[in-house]
């Protein structure tokens, strides 16, 4: 197996940008899901009842948090896959 060719400064810069963007989006997703979880807990603590609107709102908040986290995780995995494929491509001489 031959070693990977040295990366050009431009490709290294793109790699760093993609990595930073992925990390920032993942952190934003985690923060967003935590905010929704806290809002949900506060809502249950203040309302304290099991009426239909409170249940629907809480389920919607949790689903929104889950979708947010899943989408940011998917974007991070996608960016990682794009970078791996780019590095695996042969470099023209």
Summarize the structure.
This protein has 93 residues and is mainly alpha-helical. The chain contains 2 helices and no strands. The protein has a domain at 30-93.
Distance between the termini: 18 Å
Number of helices: 2
Spans with pLDDT under 50 lasting ≥5 residues? none
Strand content: under 5%
Number of strands: 0
| Molecular shape | rod-shaped
Characterize the main sheet: none
Helix content: over 70%
The helix/strand series, from N terminus to C terminus, equals HH
Overall mean pLDDT:
70
Rounded to the nearest angstrom, the radius of gyration is 21 Å
Q: What class, by secondary structure content?
A: mainly alpha
Task: Give me some keywords for this one.
93 residues, mainly alpha, 2 helices, 82% helix
Give an overview of the whole structure.
The chain has a domain at 30-93. It has 93 residues and is mostly helical. The radius of gyration is 21 Å and the shape is rod-shaped. The two termini are 18 Å apart. The longest helix is centred in the first third of the chain and has 39 residues, at 9-47. The chain contains two helices and no strands.
SSE layout:
Elements: H1 9-47, H2 52-88
């Amino acid at each position: 197996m031959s070693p990977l060719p040295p990366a050009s400064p431009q490709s290294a810069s793109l790699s760093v940008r993609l990595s930073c963007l992925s990390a920032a989006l993942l952190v934003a997703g985690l923060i967003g899901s935590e905010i929704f979880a806290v809002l949900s807990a506060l809502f249950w603590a203040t309302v304290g009842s099991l009426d239909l609107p409170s249940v629907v709102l809480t389920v919607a908040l949790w689903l929104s948090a889950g979708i947010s986290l899943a989408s940011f995780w998917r974007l991070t995995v996608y960016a990682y896959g794009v970078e791996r494929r780019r590095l695996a491509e042969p470099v023209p001489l």
